[in-house]
Amino acid sequence: MIDDWMPAFAKPSKHDSELGDPLKLPHNALGLDGLQAIYRNPALPLQTRFRAMVAALPFESPKLMATAIIHEQDFATLLDRRLARMAEQKLIEARPTSDKIIEGKPVDARLPPPIPDRRFRRI
After folding, report:
1. Which of 13, 17, 37, 112 could form a disulfide linkage to 23, CB 3.0–4.6 angstroms apart?
2. Are 57 and 35 spatial neighbours (Cβ–Cβ below 8 Å)?
3. What is the predicted pLDDT for the residue at 83?
4. Torsion angle (degrees, nearest 10) of CA 44, 45, 47, 48
C-alpha cells in the first residue's frame, strides 16, 4: 500500500479519525476563531494552548497608543500661530566679546604636524 512508506508519526491514528474535527469550527470560521477554539480546548496540550493564546492576543485587545487632542479651530490656524511666534523670536548673533584679532603663524598643510597626534595615526 501507499501508506507503508509513510513514517508512523505522519500517519493519522484511528483516534483522530474517530473524533473527526476536534475543534468543530463552522466552514466560515476566521483564523481568530480557530485560535480561540484551540486555547479554549482543555483536551489539547498546555503548550499548544499557550501558543494559541499568544498568537490571538494582539487581535483581542487593543494596543495602547498616545493620541493628541487639539482644541483649536484647525491645523492650519495652529500652524500659522506657531510660525508667527517663531518669526517674533530673534536670533542671537554670534559676535566676539572684544574687537581683538588674534594673529598666528600660517600653517603649511604639506608638512606633518610637529607633535605626534593620535588623530593622524594610521591603525
Report:
1. 37
2. no
3. 86
4. -30
